[in-house]
Amino acid sequence: MAQALLGNEAKKRGLDILPLSAGLYANEGEKYSQNARLALKEKEIEFDGFSKRLGKKDLEECDFAFGMNSAIANALCASFPECAEKIYVFPKEISDPYGKDLNAYKDCLEEIKSGTDLIVKAIEEKKL
């Protein structure tokens, strides 16, 4: 959902951002959650795709990466210490709605939106 929100906001503002969502323990190729797609659709954001496992090459090719909470950011730094300088904690601590109902995904989407807004603002102000 963060990838969709960040990409959508960047497009609206004319920013050259190519967000990528990947996880340390993601099941490669798993279809995105129906509840995630429904929550995004309510915000008029169409998004579909498959999960991706994060690899060293992904981090090497990006300008910065965000762990959705401090535990994930710490795990990213421990797994990829050579890329630690570009790993940040997402501006808001995000709880994982995986396996929960649609309302949990909607709540999570709102949490993510407040964080992606801060990221876009930092990029526009050249602070990132």
Describe this structure in words.
It is a single chain. The protein is mainly α and 128 residues long. It has a single domain, classed as Rossmann fold (3-Layer(aba) Sandwich). The protein has helices spanning 2-13, 34-42, 56-61, 70-79, 102-124, and strands at residues 65-67, 87-89. It has a two-stranded parallel ribbon with strand order 1-2. Strand 1 (65-67), helix 4 (70-79) and strand 2 form a beta-alpha-beta unit. The protein is globular and about 40 Å long. The two termini are 21 Å apart. The model has no long low-confidence stretch (mean pLDDT 93).
Write the layout of secondary structure elements.
Blueprint: H1 2-13, H2 34-42, H3 56-61, E1 65-67, H4 70-79, E2 87-89, H5 102-124
Parallel strand pairs: 1-2
Shape: globular
Q: What order do the SSEs take from the amino end to the carboxyl end, as H and E? A: HHHEHEH
Integer average pLDDT: 93
Q: What percentage of the residues does DSSP assign to strands (E)?
A: under 5%
Sheet with the most strands: spatial strand order = 1-2
**Low-confidence runs (pLDDT<50, min 5 residues)?**
none
Instruction: Return the structural class.
Output: mainly alpha
Q: What is the number of helices?
A: 5
State the CATH architecture: 3-Layer(aba) Sandwich
How large is the radius of gyration? 14 Å
Q: What proportion of the residues is helical, as a percent range? A: 40-55%
What about the largest sheet? 2 strands, parallel
The first-level CATH class name: Alpha Beta
The CATH superfamily is identified as Response regulator
Query: What is the CATH topology classification name?
Result: Rossmann fold
